[in-house]
Amino acid sequence: MKRKYILLIFLILSFYIILPYLKYILFAGVIAGMLYPLYTKLNKIINNKDISAGVLITLFILMISLTTVHILGTFYYEMLYMLVDYPPEQLRDFPHAKYIKMFLPSLISYLADITYSTLSNISKEIIGYFISTILAYYLLVYSHMISDFFYKLGFTEEDRGYILNKFYGVVIGNIFLWFLQAALSYIGFLFLGLKFAIILTILVFIFGVLPLLGPWTVWAAVAIYAYSQGDLIGVVFSLLYGFLIVTVLIEIAFKPLVVGKTANINPAIALIGIFGGLSIAGFPGIFLGPLILEYTKDYLFKYIQTKQERSSDKK
Fold first, then answer.
1. What is the pLDDT of residue 202?
2. Confidence at 193, pLDDT banded by 50, 70, 90
3. C-alpha angle with apex 122: 117 to 127, nearest 5 degrees?
4. CA–CA distance from 270 to each of 23, 133, 167, 276 (Å)?
């Protein structure tokens, strides 16, 4: 009996130690889950768990790094192109230049505060995501032990395949929607005749992936830009198309349907799981929220069905 209390104390202490890095641990699970099929195939060829996991994690880091460098390179190129076409001194020729100058100091101060806050948190984020990649490596290396642990808890091979298939469906559905939002935004930027449509499209994709931001932030900037030029049509189009269609319609109405289709999950469960998981665990919750709710629902139904069958057999 005393051992149970000791175990409970250590479980509570472990929970509080893990809690600050919970989202990074969950993100490690997402990385490991995406790489697991490749890991099993590569490990069959190499027959070395450490090398197989190390190769995949290294390739994953290189892919993320090269993609980031490419995006930043395109970003700065487009920014330079924009500044050449729209130098700062041309601000005085805008229809509402005096209003811009009136609010410009406050805007700069606000942006400076945001920049400082972002830079102060960037070290924590770097450490956190570095922990995620390292932890993902160990999750792959010891995946057989993790599987054995869950088998002892009552999970079967059928449960494992079920969870993995649902997980990959959720991942594919979200990635498809991020690209769809970027593609629709690019079409909208071309319609407005914006010369820096590529940089805005890249930002839409990045903000679509990042939690609590979304494409609406980019379209809000486009609406402000259109207003500064006296373009009423551009303002209305940005609000109706960029905010209502690209952001609200896809995020709230279309995303549950797509994720539900690709992962074979009820759209209502997908909707609650995405936003509930996002609020609790951040970015990893987008993938894990619908998965946890769906498995809980199915497991509960199986439990009730088994209990009813046992009660009917006794009669």
1. 84
2. confident
3. 145
4. 19, 27, 12, 10
Rounded Cα–Cα distance for residues 302 and 162 (Å): 14
Cα–Cα distance for residue pair 159/299, rounded to 1 Å: 10
User: What are the φ/ψ torsions at residue 124 (nearest 5 degrees)?
Assistant: -65, -40
Q: Are 218 and 208 in contact (CB under 8 A)?
A: no
Burial 260-299 (b: 16+ CB within 10 A, else e): bebbebbbebbbebbbebbeebbbbbbbbbbbbbbbeeee
d(CA 182, CA 198): 10
**Residue ranges per domain, the chain?**
22-154, 156-308
Calculate ∠ Cα 62-67-73, nearest 5°. 125
* Average pLDDT, integer, range 264-293: 86
Provide the 8-state DSSP code for 282.
Answer: S
